[in-house]
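We store sequence with structure; for instance:
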Amino acid sequence: MTTNTENCSIENIEIVFLRTVDYEEIKNAMIESYSNMQNAYWKEHHINTLNDMFPEGQVGIKINNELAGCALSIIVASLKLEGKHTYREITGDYSFSTHNPKGDTLYGIDVFIRPKYRGLRLGRRLYDYRKELCEKLNLKGIAFGGRIPEYHEYSNKMTPREYIDKVRKKEIHDPVLDFQMSNDFHPVRIIRGYLEGDLESQEYALLLEWDNVYYEHASNKAVSNRKIVRLGLIQWQMRFYKNLDELMQQAEFFVDAVSGYRSDFALFPEFFHAPLMAEYNHLSEPEAIRKLAEYTEDVVKRFAELAISYNINIITGSMPEMMDDQLYNVGYVCKRDGGTERYDKIHVTPDEAKVWGLQGGNSLQTFDTDCGKIGILICYDIEFPELSRILADEGMNILFVPFLTDTQNGYSRVRNCAQARAIENECYVAIAGNVGNLPKVHNMDIQYAQAVVFTPCDFSFPSNGIKAEASPNTEMTLIVDVDLDLLKELNMYGSVRNLHDRRTDIYSIIKRKK
């Protein structure tokens, strides 16, 4: 690519706030930039007004101390953009009386680069400044009416909508619109009669918007939204316990340990309390696990108390529960605010159905926590990608997977599917299981596990998609921080966008109502 400054030595490029004393330079730069539009430059009182009202929104870019371009903007309420508006209206008849410091959207009034400095991607630097300003001021996003200056060459052949569609498909090159869309601005609607005298665009414009993924709605709550969430995964050793008190003493030890590091969640494995079945080894397997189900209510109650006393959200792994004479594999989210919610294992393995008579549950949902929306899938459920996709569509950021596997190949199925779910659904996936042996419990003799936290695979995450992993088959905890803001950024600007790019015109996943 060639530029008009090839023979010019560039020693310094900087973005500066515009000043009143810069006006003549601003005027000359505009006259050069809009040479095909008569008198298309702001008067001195316009620049002074913008500077007085909103100095942060008025910036220039200088090369070797010479003004190369400018970006002007105001703040408006997004409601003003819901209907049709013209350039004259959005600027208050060029008085900028529409500027509202309490608004939620940065509106671009003008961006221009002098011809001799084009080709250096200076416009991108100005747009990046606007994005940073938007994030700093906690605004919803940026909007502006984008000109389509090449449209006059096609206006007798196609409508503006057809023209824009061909630009998006790269069948027509429009330097202005191509640049704007390449900088993550998305089309909203076509505006007729936007800018008087814009013959190149036939007075049409395209309303373009950029969404601030870091925007936070105002809240009256005393608690702030957490961006960094700390996970505490418990790799539980199967061993003999005399009774429930002794087992829960060990569970409390781990809750105490991970909460001591200020973890937001503690994740226990599937059927972690299976050692209590040793007392019923004289019974058949179906009878023994139904005896284990008798502990469930007490276990949940104790975990709920631990969640409050240790100020941590506890995911109880899973446990058998009898409902309407049917045996299910369920778990509970015990929140530190005192709430308790139940989740089901949807798919039971052939062995669980044959040996214990377990039934698959019917409840699939995300859970609202003080750290955002989470999902939980028990062991075998992670091998069914439809479930996690439904949870992702409901806004899940972290997927927890309590599991129990006896062999390495069983563990590999859980592990590999969990990592795939992190990539597919642009979320974090945390898995935790049991280790060790239970020689005195039928159908629960050996265990194999390695706790892991998986991430998507993109530049902001580990290249192998593994945030952290425990030592395999050893009792321990794994404490990991995950950044929820990185997921927002990935969803909007990732190298690939698995959720956004789905072909819902061809296929869909439907969650049936019970």
About this structure: The mean pLDDT is 92.
